[in-house]
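Recall the central idea of this unit: under ordinary conditions, the amino acid sequence of a chain determines the structure it adopts. In this exercise we apply that idea directly, starting from the sequence alone.
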Amino acid sequence: MKIEELLIKHENLKLKPYKDTKGILTIGVGRNLEDNGISEDEAMYLLENDIKRVEQELREIFPDFDELPKNVKMVLIDMDFNLGKSRFLQFKKMIQAVKERDWERMIEEMKNSRWCRQVKSRCYDDAKLIEELLTIQT
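Accordingly, the structure predicted from this sequence is:
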């Protein structure tokens, strides 16, 4: 038996955070998140996996996602990452603007949303990325 198997047998493998028998927030195979947290390498590994998941969600919405301009892809990833797919899908007019390559309307739909009023600088940073694309195209 490997040490990993023994630890999993005794600790269990939990893929979502839970409180252990002492009430300590834990994940995985007994990882005490309150005292140990995660390393920067682990955080970056999780982030890369999350980005891959979000990109796959966006490919379902935009079949030509990989052909979109880099700045548009970055904004869509940032929004979906922040909102989650179900809330992202509520941006119907913005999604249609992206499909029509209407970047001005995309910006307008982003800025005229409750999301933008809530996240403020994130929205304006994203809008600037799209505005840069408009500058390049003119």
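The chain has a mean pLDDT of 96.
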